[in-house]
C-alpha cells in the first residue's frame, strides 16, 4: 500500500527565529514544511507547490501578509487553502483587516505553540470536510459518510442508518426545472438536519435526492415519522396551484410514454444492528437498498419507511 502523503504547511515569515521555531514544532507532529521569507516568495511557493495550509506573517518585505492573503483568496485554484495570519499587532483593527482579506484564522504573537497546533488541526479538518461536502447542501459527502458508518461498525456501537430519497423527483425536475429541483433538495436537507439534530444524528448527502442519517436504534422509527410528517407538510409549497389541486403532474416516463406522477413523497429504508451484528459497509448498503425498495412499494400512497427487523 502506498504511503499516505504528508500534510504540507507553508510558513511565510521574515524572522529566522520564528521560522526555525515553527519548522521544528511542525516537523515534530509530522507535517512537511515549506518556507518563504517574504510575500513574493510565498506566492511563488504557493503556485509551485500548493500547500494544505499557510501560516502567514502580516509584516513582511516586498508584499504584506494581507496582500498575499488577498491574492490567495482571489485565485480560483488557491482559494480553498486555509490561511492563518500571524502578527505582533494587537487590537481589533488589524484582526478585522485580516479577516476582510479572506483569512481563515488570526493569531497574535507571542502565541502558545499548543494553541497554534490546535488551530491548525481544526482548520485542516474544516477544509477537508468543506472540499468533500456536497456543493448544493454543504452536507458531508460519501467519504465522510463511509467513515462515520465504519467508525460505528468498528466500535461495535449500536446504530441505525436511515437511507432517504424522494419519489417522483425526476418527473418534478422535468416539469419544474433544475433550479426548482435544487430548491427542493436544499429544503429537504434543512428539514432532515433540523429533526436529526434533536436526536444527535449525523446527516450526509449521498448525491441527488439521496440522503443518509446515522442515529441510535431507539430513535430511528420516531425520527422517520417526524421527517416524513414535516416533508409531507412542505410538499404542497413545491407546486403551482393547479398541480397542487390535481394531486399529480404529467410528463414522459423513462420509456417515453406520458404518465401521471403523484406529488413528491419520501421513502426511508432503515438498517440497524440492534437485532443482529453488522460487520461491513457492504452489508449496511445492501440491507439499506432492500429496505428502501420495500418503502417505495407504497409510493403511490405517499411517504413511507421500512425498518429491517430480521434477526438473521
Fold blueprint:
Layout: E1 8-12, H1 16-28, E2 32-36, H2 39-48, E3 53-57, H3 65-73, E4 83-87, H4 92-100, E5 105-108, H5 113-132, H6 142-155, E6 160-167, H7 169-197, E7 202-207, E8 210-215, H8 217-234, H9 241-246, E9 248-252, E10 258-262, E11 265-272, H10 281-296, E12 304-307
Parallel strand pairs: 1-2, 1-3, 3-4, 4-5, 11-12
Antiparallel strand pairs: 6-8, 6-11, 7-8, 9-10
Summarize the structure.
The chain has 312 residues and is α/β, with parallel strands linked by helices.
Helix content: 40-55%
Distance between the termini: 35 Å
Sheet bearing the most strands, described?
5 strands, parallel
Helix and strand content put the structural class at: alpha/beta
The overall pLDDT average reads 89
Residue runs with pLDDT of under 50 for 5 or more positions: none
Task: Tell me the total number of β-strands.
Answer: 12
Shape: elongated
The helix/strand order is EHEHEHEHEHHEHEEHHEEEHE
Radius of gyration: 25 Å
Widest sheet: strand order? 2-1-3-4-5
Give the count of helical stretches.
10
**Portion in beta strands:** 15-25%
Task: Offer a few descriptive terms.
21% strand; five-stranded parallel beta sheet; single chain; 312 residues; alpha/beta
How is this structure best described in words?
The protein is an alpha/beta fold and 312 residues long. Helices cover 46% and strands 21% of the residues. It is built from ten helices and twelve strands. Strands 2-1-3-4-5 form a five-stranded parallel beta sheet, sandwiched between helices. It has a five-stranded mixed beta sheet with strand order 7-8-6-11-12, sandwiched between helices. α3 links the parallel β3 and β4. The longest helix is centred in the middle third of the chain and has 29 residues, at 169-197. The chain is elongated and about 70 Å long. The model has no long low-confidence stretch (mean pLDDT 89).
Amino acid at each position: 500500500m502506498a504511503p499516505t502523503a504528508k500534510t504540507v504547511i507553508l510558513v511565510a515569515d521574515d524572522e529566522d527565529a520564528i521560522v526555525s521555531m515553527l519548522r521544528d514544532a511542525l516537523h515534530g507532529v509530522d507535517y512537511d514544511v515549506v518556507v518563504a521569507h517574504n510575500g513574493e516568495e510565498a506566492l511563488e511557493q504557493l503556485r509551485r507547490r500548493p500547500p494544505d495550509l499557510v501560516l502567514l506573517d502580516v509584516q513582511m518585505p516586498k508584499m504584506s501578509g494581507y496582500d498575499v492573503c488577498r491574492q490567495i483568496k482571489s485565485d480560483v485554484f488557491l482559494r480553498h487553502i486555509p490561511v492563518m495570519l500571524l502578527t505582533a499587532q494587537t487590537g481589533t483593527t488589524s484582526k478585522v483587516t485580516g479577516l476582510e482579506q479572506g483569512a481563515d484564522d488570526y493569531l497574535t504573537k507571542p502565541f502558545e505553540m499548543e494553541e497554534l497546533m490546535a488551530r491548525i488541526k481544526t482548520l485542516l479538518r474544516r477544509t477537508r470536510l468543506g472540499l468533500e461536502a456536497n456543493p448544493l447542501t454543504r452536507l458531508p459527502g460519501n467519504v465522510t459518510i463511509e467513515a462515520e458508518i465504519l467508525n460505528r461498525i468498528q466500535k461495535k456501537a449500536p446504530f441505525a442508518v436511515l437511507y432517504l430519497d424522494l419519489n417522483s423527483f425526476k418527473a418534478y425536475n422535468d416539469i419544474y426545472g433544475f433550479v426548482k429541483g435544487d430548491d427542493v433538495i436544499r429544503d429537504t436537507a434543512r428539514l432532515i438536519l433540523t429533526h436529526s439534530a434533536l436526536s444527535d444524528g449525523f446527516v450526509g448527502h449521498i448525491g441527488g435526492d439521496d440522503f443518509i442519517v446515522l442515529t441510535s436504534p431507539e430513535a430511528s422509527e420516531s425520527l422517520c415519522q417526524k421527517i416524513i410528517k414535516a416533508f409531507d407538510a412542505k410538499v404542497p409549497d413545491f407546486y403551482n396551484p393547479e398541480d397542487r389541486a390535481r394531486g399529480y403532474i404529467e410528463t414522459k416516463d423513462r420509456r417515453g410514454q406520458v404518465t401521471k406522477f403523484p406529488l413528491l413523497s419520501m421513502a426511508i429504508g432503515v438498517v440497524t444492528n440492534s437485532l443482529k451484528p453488522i460487520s461491513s459497509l457492504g452489508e449496511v448498503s445492501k440491507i439499506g437498498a432492500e429496505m428502501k425498495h420495500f418503502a417505495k412499494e407504497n409510493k403511490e400512497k405517499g411517504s413511507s419507511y421500512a425498518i429491517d427487523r430480521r434477526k438473521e
